[in-house]
């Protein structure tokens, strides 16, 4: 029988290699990120991204190894002119985000005010990358 343990705000079942739930990468954070992405798309001056918006970010389970060693969260976002195209999303964690994770605090304040400055997207390949503070 595998027990459940808490590790840095994660509910972990099994080894550290498993996918786990970080309680602050939740619907509230994902909703704020969705609105920030939509606002950022409106500021990007790229004709290929004209009319893009985000209809959601999946508050998915994440790999503890990727989070603590590679300092990234990999998830899914629905983006596009209709907001319904599935994009692979990589969120790179900055110093503030990593500090908040180790203190078991929320990440909402780590979303940059000028998200468009730290946002990379490929509409053709269906991926988006961003950086948290």
End-to-end gap: 39 Å
Q: Given the C-alpha coordinates, what overall shape results? A: globular
Any low-confidence stretches, pLDDT <50, length ≥5?
Answer: 1-5
Instruction: Quote the average pLDDT.
Output: 84
Order of helices and strands: EEEHEEHEEHEE
Major β-sheet strand ordering: 4-6-7-9-8
The overall strand count is 9
Largest sheet: 5 strands, mixed
Percent of residues in helical segments?
A: 10-25%
Which class do the helix and strand fractions yield?
Answer: alpha+beta
Q: Strand-residue fraction? A: 25-35%
- Secondary structure tally, helices: 3
Task: Describe the protein.
The protein has 133 residues and is α+β, with helices and mostly antiparallel strands. 24% of the residues lie in helices and 34% in strands. It has 3 helices and 9 strands. It has helices spanning 27-43, 64-70, 95-102; strands spanning 4-7, 10-13, 19-22, 53-57, 62-63, 72-80, 85-92, 119-122, 127-131. It is globular and about 40 Å long.
What's the topology here?
Layout: E1 4-7, E2 10-13, E3 19-22, H1 27-43, E4 53-57, E5 62-63, H2 64-70, E6 72-80, E7 85-92, H3 95-102, E8 119-122, E9 127-131
Parallel strand pairs: 7-9
Antiparallel strand pairs: 1-2, 2-3, 3-5, 4-6, 6-7, 8-9
